[in-house]
Design brief:
Shape: elongated
Number of helices: 11
Number of strands: 17
Distance between the termini: 163 Å
Largest sheet: 9 strands, mixed
Helix content: 40-55%
Number of domains: 3
Amino acid sequence: MPDTINNFVGVLKDPETLESISKKFGVSLEALMSEMEIGMKIEKEHTEDEATAGVIVLHHLAENPAYYSKGEFKNEGDNAWPKSYKARHLEPGLVHYADIGEKDPVTGNPKGMTLLLTKEAIDRMRPSFKGKPVVNWYHKSVKPDDFKKGNADGVITGASYNSEDGWDWVEFLVWDSATKENCDKGFRLSCAYVPTDIKIEPGIWHNIPYDGEVISGVYTHMAIVDNPRYERSLIMANSLGGKMKGLWTKFLNKVTGKPEAKELDNKIEVDMDGKKISLEELVNSFKAEKAEKEKLALENSVKEMKDDSIISIDGDEVSIKDLKSAHAAFTLRKNAMDEAEEKSKKEKEEAERKNSEEESEKKKAEDEKRNADEKAAADKAEADKKALEEKRNADEKNFLDLKNAAEKGGEVKKLPAYESANDKMARGKTKYGEMTAEKK
């Protein structure tokens, strides 16, 4: 084996097994074996040592379970053109998130939460799906530039609700050949989304208890998988249809002599007191009863607690007495804040009331002044109109008098003419003569 290959294998120590890769990405062993065959053909072009080629293939598959099919079959021949698909992917139900919830006091990891995903929440999320990428084989972190980098295998072109079957459906285009091949094989859809609003309020859905409700969220991508699942959430009686994940039975394999597990159909019925009851109903009743017992046990445990009882909160050991003291202090502070807030609210309302009254009085005074000015203007206009009318009537009467007198030949009454000071002096000279020095 060449030194370069020896050095390379020395770096690639302890490759992951197909089983661990299958578990890591949620890809079936059958699919990985097919990918392994493709990879071996390619890697043996670079080394004649089959073991070395196998190590290299395993390391590549540990990074990307579709490492070789993407490179070998992408955009070949007529299959290079994008192909459109339409499929259902989600209906209302319960979703379990393993990475949220209160922390386990022993491990420090979140205990997880089961949340209700309603149709109303899906309706709010639906518009965010269009334009998001489609990826093959497994879920992965996606970014807006994945299209530019060539990391996306397709794109969501539409999303809608089907009232006939109660499911949400998507339309999407796929341009990657391996992805199209998986779609044509009957692989299923597994959507990925991030909840943006969660209401923590426990309840019961189909006899199954849950911790809260997803109010809204944003889709990130859609994965084409042979075994639908979420890396960070587990859909319960929701995306698979007909089966409840986690419903298994153990039996002894007569060939191997080893115990094995087999997933059961939740519609299988069991005889109980002469009645046929489905496993789903029995399991739901069991879970509801278990939750009720845990609730009662917790309530009884709390009732029996004393001031010196210790409980663990986020890794801290705290006594009930300390909790009561903290609650009393918090309540006192909260009441003081509430009182201050109420006082501030009342002062603000009083100031607004006074401002409103002042504005009202000011407006009233302005209205009264405007009305008075308008009345005075109207009275003056009426008086001017009346005086003008009286003058016009007098002029008309005088004109008629003159006209009537002229027509009858009678003496015409002359109106007094305007006489200036010079006119008066001239009239005096005519009547009395010039003034002499003695008169002066």
